[in-house]
Amino acid sequence: MAESPIVLLVALRYIHVLAAALWVGGGIVVLAARAAANMPPLPGATSAALGRTVGRLVGTGFAVFVVTGVLLTFNRLAEQSIDAAYIAVLVSKTLLALAMFRLAVPSRRQSEPQAATSDRQPWWQSRTAIIVGLGLAIYLLSLVLNEMAELSFRSVG
Ligand code: HEM
Predict the structure, then answer these.
(1) How far apart are CA 47 and CA 11, in angstroms?
(2) In testing the pocket of ligand 1, which one of 72, 75, 92, 152 has its CB within 8 Å of the most ligand atoms?
């Protein structure tokens, strides 16, 4: 992939970064809705219906991240200048991403019919808050990866 056409790499990065922005941004919107005091439950939106929608979104997001992420990884690892520190950060990022997706898969428990927006825990202790926190950490690690790659190119060339 080192000599791949630039348009392909830009397309990959575009899809990957767009998915990251939608994932983290969407999570923050859900958290904000939960944090809003006295928000009435959505009419007809049971946890089962919401769980199916979230399940589809998580499945699509997972596929997009894995496909584009693996191709970006091959592209980076093809560079001579990439060192062990870059690989260590990339492995940490990937493990965090897998933990985040595992957490995002709706549990069977959610198929119980109940109001979709009801949540006994405060918003900052919710599973969504942990998912958003992991997403933000992963986003930060991605920027660190980018800087590490840039620095390694500069030190070689
Ligand atoms: C299987 C999961 C994933 C893999 C293997 C993966 C891999 C990668 C790789 C190799 C890069 C290029 C880094 C560089 O410039 O050297 C990248 C960029 C990026 N990734 Fe991921 N990624 C994954 C999931 C995620 C997730 C879940 C998020 C966000 C929540 C994310 C956010 C980003 C962002 C924002 C960049 C662009 C950084 C920049 O160039 O400014 N990635 N990813």
Answers:
(1) 36
(2) 72
